[in-house]
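tool_call predict_complex ligand=L-homoserine
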Amino acid sequence: MKILLIGFGTVGQGLAELLLEKEAVLYRTYGINVQVTGIADFQKGSLYNTRGLDLKKVLAAVKNNGTLAALKNDIFDEDALALIKKAKADVLCEATYTDIKTAEPATSHIRTAFEQGMHVVTSNKGPLALYYHELLELARKKKLEFLFEGTVMSGTPVLNLIRETLTGSEIREIKGILNGTTNYILSLMEEGLSYEVVLKKAQELGYAEAIPDADVLGWDALAKVTILANTVFSARQKPFDYPCQGITQISAADIAAAKAQGKRFKLIGRVWKEGEAVKASVSPQQISLSHPLAGVMGASNALTISSDTLGDVTIIGPGAGRRETGFSMLIDLIHIGQRRH
Ligand code: HSE
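tool_result ok
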């Protein structure tokens, strides 16, 4: 399976590390031999080699120099779009930064990949929140896979759970903690750390979005809520159609006051059906400490899925991070590999 990695930041590097770590398992267990033939990153540069790039050298170059320039023999002098058009690959792995307002450049990358006959795996929330139905249609016409497990709760397989494992159920409501950065900030502020210090730490750990404020204003959770609305409830809304409030108004004093009343602030995303209408919202809420969502701390996320068959099912797991989101793309790649077999 020849793949292109577009976007070689936290997530792209996380996937590359897992491909190295799991190379033998992928071949032995699933019969999949993954070869990364191209990488493009708008800051680090681009590489292309039809015989496959040496991922150990690629990761070392980025670690040592912050760019791909050291791999002189494999340098590709054009941008990501040119690479997607030129490369003969089976799968595009799109891991560029999310722009929730334009969904670019990711949407152009994905469209071009489908036009070139490539399957697409992405962790980018923009294209799913803004153009899901259009992109899915394009993929179906070309009989290609379009997989995006990492867009909600990183590698915690919540989309697979809802869309495949709970098949046959009528989903009525999905509700929970969908943003790792804000949950991490609220958790550490409760321990007495300042908002600014914790936000910086979240950025260093690779949880926070590239666009400043996207997490704390609630936009990232809003993108995920919209993805759930579009992919699970077949809604056709855009993120800013739904009400959204972030955590910037919550002070250390508010957190302490909530605690004194046996409560804890959480940024809650919710999607639900009201008759035929699909509603959604993002807002900070004071949750009673006895509620399961109150115990979800740090960068963890949690979702409670309410259905006609099972009542409530709650899934808790990582919601952000290098290895965690890299893993989401590995799940999708394995699914494509298995179906190709
Ligand atoms: N910035 C996001 C978060 C990354 O903090 O949850 C994962 O989508």
